[in-house]
Amino acid sequence: MNKTFILKEFFVAQGLELLCICESWLPMGDSSALLELLPVACSCFNVPRSSGRDGGLVVYKSHFNCKQLILSNPPSSFEMCLSELGPPPLLLVALIYRPPKFDVDFLKDFSDLLSVNMLKYDHVLILGDFNIHVCCPDKPLAKVILHLLGSLNLSQWVLGPTHAQGHTLDLVLSIGLSVAGVEILSPVFSDHSPILCDFNLPCVSAVASSHVRFCRVLNAAKVIELGELLCAEGSELHTMSLNAEELTLQFDSICKNILDRIAPLRIRKPRPRPEPWLSDDVRACRRAERKWKKDRLQVSREIFRESLFSYQQTLKEARVKFFADIVEKNSHDPRSLCSVVNSLLEFSDSSSLPPTGETCNDFLHFFVDTVRATRAAITNSPSDSLLPE
Questions:
Q1: What ranges do the domains of the chain cover?
Q2: Contact, 56 vs 17, CB < 8 A?
Q3: What's the Rg (C-alpha) of the chain?
Q4: pLDDT at 61 over 80
Q5: Of 85, 88, 111, 118, which is closest to residue 199 (Cα–Cα)?
Q6: Closest CA to 122 of 150, 97, 89
Q7: Which residue from 217, 296, 316, 317 lies 20 to 30 Å from 233 (Cα-Cα)?
Q8: Strand partners, 123
């Protein structure tokens, strides 16, 4: 993938919470590209092709309970990335890429996918590049697929061209889920248009942000005012016939009421820390984008497009130089070098299995069986009397 920083900037600038990408071209195990792409507080899972350069990629905010689903017998006529967004009632999200070449099994595979999952989920979102000209309903394949969607009560929300040649190839389908604010952006960094839309999850648990802090603003004048008000309002405490605990609670209440009047609580959110390798010259594409959006000229679009790829290359080079300087500076500090290497290579894969009692027991049995097999393979091995049964 040669558009990692472009897509990262797009995710942040558009305020996205979920990004689905077809034809990601990310091979298995390429964690460096994923680390370049992931914004702060985001996770992803990649479903690469077993061979070739296509595949699907889903990027989402880490606070979502997102689980990748692996099919034991995936369809052969199209690529698919399945995931669940929870908590219950779960939303099934299917990212689909259908190759342009006609495959006689596509309609059957797609019908089977819909019929099986419609029974399991009340809320389904299907999106992706179908390579079917639904803008031409008289074409045979478009007619059949539109009839299939209608028979299953699936809503199709994209109304307009999504490809540089003016056809509607990318679809957003749903059942049991209302989609709003569908916006088709101009195809700039691809020949397909990005599609933006809003939808509410069936059930979203409130996520308490550990980064939000509350504070009070106190200066010298407010401290003096606090003392005066405490003297005035707390003077009656000694006349109350209360025990020590009740007096403490009363004094605490008086202090809080006074502070709420003179210095109310304010929410302080930390400013996002800019990446240290960014500089003003790599942001030139933002100016080109504003100019293109203002005049909508083809020449401005080409300038914006060139500046995007220049931004990607410049940022990549700046990032390489930034980490190269750190490595050179800490060449005699193994701990710092290991920390830098880990930050560049370690990637947390959200598709790992959750820790359950069943998986722990499976691992225990696997470990014991492995030890037993290893001992049996070693000649003159010690007694197995200490091996747990």
A1: 4-199, 213-268, 280-345, 357-386
A2: no
A3: 29
A4: yes
A5: 85
A6: 89
A7: 217
A8: 91
- Per-residue pLDDT of 80-98, as tens digits, reads 899 998 777 889 999 999 9
Q: If pLDDT is split at 50, 70 and 90, which confidence band does 351 have? A: very low
Contacting residues for 322 by C-beta, under 8 A, at least 6 apart: 276, 277
Would you tell me which CATH number, out of the four given (3.60.10.10, 3.10.20.70, 3.40.50.1100, 3.90.470.20), belongs to the domain 4-199?
3.60.10.10
Helix (H) or strand (E) holding 142, with range, is: helix 140-151
DSSP annotation string for 222-279? HHHHHHHHHHHHSTTGGGS---HHHHHHHHHHHHHHHHHHHS--EEEPPPPPPPTT--
Burial group, residue 350, by CB count within 10 angstroms (0-12, 13-18, 19+): middle
Q: How many other CB atoms sit within 10 Å of the CB of residue 263?
A: 17
Of 61, 80, 84, 60, the residue nearest 71 (C-alpha):
80
Produce one character per residue of 102-129: b if its CB has 16 or more CB atoms within 10 Å, e if not.
Answer: eeeebeebbeebbeebbeebebbbbbbb
196-236: per-residue pLDDT in tens?
Answer: 999 887 765 444 444 567 788 888 888 898 888 888 887 77
Whole-number Å distance between alpha carbons of 109 and 101 = 15
If you write DSSP's letter for every residue of 332-368 in order, what string do you get?
Answer: T-HHHHHHHHHHHH----TTSPP--HHHHHHHHHHHH
pLDDT, tens digit, for every residue of 285-309? 777 777 877 887 878 878 877 887 7
3-state secondary structure of 216: coil
